[in-house]
Amino acid sequence: MSPDVMPEAQVALTMTEPGNKTDRAQSRARAARRRKIVVMGARVLLLVAVLGLWEVLSRAKAIDPFNFSMPSKIWDQIWTWVMHGTAQGSLGEQIWATLYEALLGWVLGVVAGVVFGIALGRITFLADVLGPYIKVLNSIPRIVLAPIFVIWFGLGPASKVASAVVLVFFPVFFNAFQGAREVDRNLVSNARILGASDRRVTLQVVIPSATSWIFTSLHVSFGFALIGAIVGEYIGATEGIGLLVAQSQGTFNAAGVYASMVILAVVALVAEGLLTFAERRIFRWKPAGSDS
Amino acid sequence: MSADTSPAIELRGASKTFRTPSGGLHTAVRDLDLTVGRGEFVAVVGPTGCGKSTTLTLVSGLEEPTEGEVLVAGEPVDGVGDKVGFVFQQDATFPWRTVLSNVMAGPRFRGVPKAEAKQKAREWLARVGLAAFEDRYPHQLSGGQRKRVALAATFVNDPEILLMDEPFSALDVQTRALMSDELLELWEGTGASVVFVTHDLEESIALADKVVVMTAGPATVKQVFDIDLPRPRKVEKVRLEPRFIEIYREIWESLGEEVRITRERGAAHVA
């Protein structure tokens, strides 16, 4: 192609393109919007269908309404709890009791897990000595400790916090340990050359690069903390959502059990949202979309 | 010997043996003698994987020699000293720190007050042309810009000895030439002694006062060539000079043989 033909061809292209481009962009945007609406609609439809089917089958007595309850009764139960409180006090108090135990247990478990994980990841001697014991402890199904904690610490929050801690500790510990082990050796060498002491290397290189590992475990472990708190309350407590479940079960109130589950789900989702928000703030240094 | 007259770096019969994961022994460097004078720019070339980088880790104090002695300014190396700067082959900027904070890291690690560290860091960022980028994170920069951050972070510590391990090998050819020129400019103001490891013979001749050719691994010094090209040099220009080509041919005769040995070994390994 001779060079003097080029400009003409380009002009022709740019002449026709703008109209085309905006047209196509518009139709593409429209298609994307339509798809979004369809997806949302399908989601709502699915929920309505499942709840409706449940309601209808239960009312028609195709499934036992006493055991399986029905969405309307569950909603009534939640409404009663919200408006008139539960048998052991207001609903807010119950939620707060569970949340308090879960949060405290989670924070303690996370701190212990991170400290031990980083320490064992950095100090090979400690890892060699403690390694087998940690494996043994990890292989115990830790939820069976919950009754023991109720015996040790009584019906108050302490026993629930303890079961949350043991559930949270291990996943956080293993991730922090792995994170500390897999720090880029170049970064450590570079920090040492630049003049960092061992303590500085740990604080300013190992911990920051292990944070993405640790954060992965934080999401999972908050769920574990809730489980610990609920199971502890279920076994023996004076307040909390777990106690709500236990009492509903004791009075053959299936709707109460389901209602507690719904409340728990909402609490867990809100907590998860807050955690994701915090993560975004902390990981501003990461390239967008590199997170798997 | 007084500290003032002793050479910047001296390796005497240094050897380094590593234990491989399979339990065997691997000798990276064997019986190495090398002297680098004060303010001298020495390039070390050798076939890939021959143990050039190990030489640098011995001088830096990150590793200890299995045998022999390593002296920096007449003193035996004991751990990482404060005279040394090291530019790594891979990216070694801290990804969670901003550009400014990365350059401040060295002085802060060495206990320089924050305000002073910040001022020094800004000066060096200006010198490498990244003053406008101080708030960025490394992932927002190009490979060449990240290398500049690494240079600034190293130079800000005023190292007497500058160790560079194929620092520009990950860059594209144009950026590489540009960075080489910048390195020469930055270095000429400091009077630091440089050991620059590379497998690129052209780069080594263009930059250095002295080119050391290493043997196929385990590495030891095969031959040392003085480069009598005048300074200041521009990398793109100097490589076209007849004297450059003459030197290139001379050194390649020595280096090519070692490259051939390494290649034959690799082939034998595959077969």
UniProtKB/TrEMBL annotation, chain A:
Assigned keywords, A-Z: Cell membrane, Membrane, Transmembrane, Transmembrane helix, Transport
GO cellular component, one term: plasma membrane
Family: Belongs to the binding-protein-dependent transport system permease family.
Organism of origin: Streptomyces diastatochromogenes
Chain ranges passing through the membrane: 37-57, 103-124, 136-155, 161-177, 213-235, 255-277
This protein's record includes keyword Transmembrane: yes
Name of the protein this chain belongs to: ABC transporter permease
CDD domains, sorted: TM_PBP2
A Pfam family: BPD_transp_1
Entry's localization field: Cell membrane
Domain ABC transmembrane type-1: 95-275
Membrane-protein topology: Multi-pass membrane protein
Primary location group: membrane
GO biological process: transmembrane transport
From TrEMBL, chain B:
MF annotations from Gene Ontology: ATP binding; ATP hydrolysis activity; glycosyltransferase activity
A Pfam entry, by short name: ABC_tran
Domain ABC transporter: 9-241
This protein's name: Mannosyltransferase
Keywords: ATP-binding, Glycosyltransferase, Nucleotide-binding, Transferase, Transport
CDD domains cross-referenced by the UniProt entry: ABC_NrtD_SsuB_transporters
Domain of life the protein comes from: Bacteria
Family annotation (Gene3D superfamilies): P-loop containing nucleotide triphosphate hydrolases (3.40.50.300)
Species the sequence originates in: Streptomyces diastatochromogenes
